Hints:
The protein contains eleven helices and 43 strands. By secondary structure, it is of the alpha+beta class.
Amino acid sequence: MSDTFPRQYARTQRLSLGEPRNFTVSPNGESVVFARSHSGSDSVNSLWVLNTNMGDEREVLNPRTLPADIATLTPEELRRRERAREGAGGVVTYATDAAVTRAVTILGGLIVVVDLASGNITIPNLAPGAFDARLSPDGNTISYVRGTSLCVSDLEGNERIIASEDAHTVSWGSAEFIAAEEMGRMRGYWWSPDSQFIAACRVDVSPIPIWHIADPAHPERPATEHRYPAAGSPNAIVSLHVLHVTTGQRVDVSLQGEWEYLNSVSWTSGGLIAQTQTRNQRRVDIHKIDSSTGSSTIVFSDTDNAWVELVPGVPSTLSSGVVVTAADRDGARRLIVDGNAVSPTHLQVRHIVNVSDTIVFVANLRDTPWVQDIWSYNTTNSTLAQLTNEQGVVSASGHAEHLVVRVSTLTTESAEFRVLNSPYRIQSHAETALVQPNVRIQAVGPRGIPVAIVLPNDGATTQLPVLFDPYGGPHAQRVVASRNAYLSSQWFADQGFVVVIADGVGTPGKGSEWERDVLNDLAQVVLDDQVEIVRALEDLEPRADTTRVGIRGWSFGGYLAALAVLRRGDVFHAGVAGAPVTDWRLYDTHYTERYVGNPTIDDTYYKTTSLLTDAHLLERPLLIIHGLADDNVVAAHTLQLSSALLEAGKPHEVLPLSGVTHMTPQEVVAENLLLHQLEFLQRALS
């Protein structure tokens, strides 16, 4: 059977398999540890080490050689992968000691320790079922979660439980749903630099309502209980504690002020700190903690009339104890050192890579948010430097002296992986896409809306129907200077569409005001920007036939697609809504309340943004797709919208996906989803 792009896209997990990932750079820069599978269609990652002096790569752990069923995953690991949108297998996460001489991972529920110099592999004599294994900084102790208990063991397998409770609703050392799904905190415990203590979260989920997720295709199976903190409902009760690894002695941490969310914890040579956030998200506090007594002092606070944005990689501390964070100041997200903004206002800080005397971070120029580069700030002499200038999207791992960068541009076939200031590159085994993106990016209109237009590679000038392909919501950017970001869009273009992607208000990169323009309205202002681009297409692209305009999207993009055909059927003539939010009351606290408030206090904006109240407006073809096993945007969203449409006498189509979660990783499902959408759009826009 000849390969096609939909089949390749599904088989290679969106061309991601075979790419090196999860880099760890040793302090001296001589070793780079990473995960990578053997080919672009191999989903099982091995662990590798690059010697930067010689340029050679060594495979130090091949999961297929171990006496373990690597497909066996604990329920906790399955949930972690869903939160991280992780579809690969084998070594998907690992941790090292501080010197990067040993690594630990979990395969088939078993803890595996690797000597990174010799390649020797040890499987300690521990029962299976461990989760989130890590090494102490000195490399002599393994920590992990088993069920709801936090455990440690020596390298031989002598296990000790250091925190546990009988209540099934209480867990130690794990991140709660909201932390993992919305705050970017995937872990629940942190080692002290001297390897003597662990700071650990205690999580009590008993206040959270129980939802039930069933598989209607298998009525013989019981429904899964899922504690889901929907907007307006109680969150988990989270507290922080310091545990002595040897004695098990516990010190309870007292975090000052009003707070609902524990955003992050960092324990470095500069001390133990934690960041908390109020329920309305308009204030965050950074607490410096005395680990011996549990007392804390607020050393930095930030407030905002809309919300305070959380930035990956911070807060942290310099070795001197000076706090490093990022915050919105003077219209831009800026690097903050010791309370002072040190990056300029024309830069938007996106992510902090490493905090030391020289801080490394990712940023973009605010007028070109589709280009991201690596910058550094030297705290000793207060100098800012741009480390890359690739006219693409660059990410990094490591520290200022030794960085590994991933570079993706519009002109390179696939991403490149380089050791900065070194002749060596890390090989990628990812396949080359069977489509060739033909894309141009520009800022449109007086507000400079970032727009990407994707055309078929037919060299023709005939007019074609238009397909909008946005995400369109907060925290996700679709218009980026990266070739692989447009692969599925290009396939649709090659089937006879002008594909348009617009990043309107609320999307990241263009500054504080742009992001906050969606406060109290996730619907109309977002839709208005898409409509503005449709109106501008006559001047932007002569091949665009704006009498035939479709729109497709997933998650928030699915919400936007349904919203478009409901409210602006005069502009959008067909919609494909994948896993759409339809009523924000059914989505989680942290995301939803940030933008439209707490419905128990005021539900005004829930009414004005609900698709259910607009169901009677539908006059255009609408296809709704939803995975019935989705525990993030639950299938109730689609079922309730479908019921409202039926009640209003509005024909529509629903495609339920049995056993499929929010990320549709199954190869056959992913392939045929593209084909099904194509058939629907061709039929609807004919």
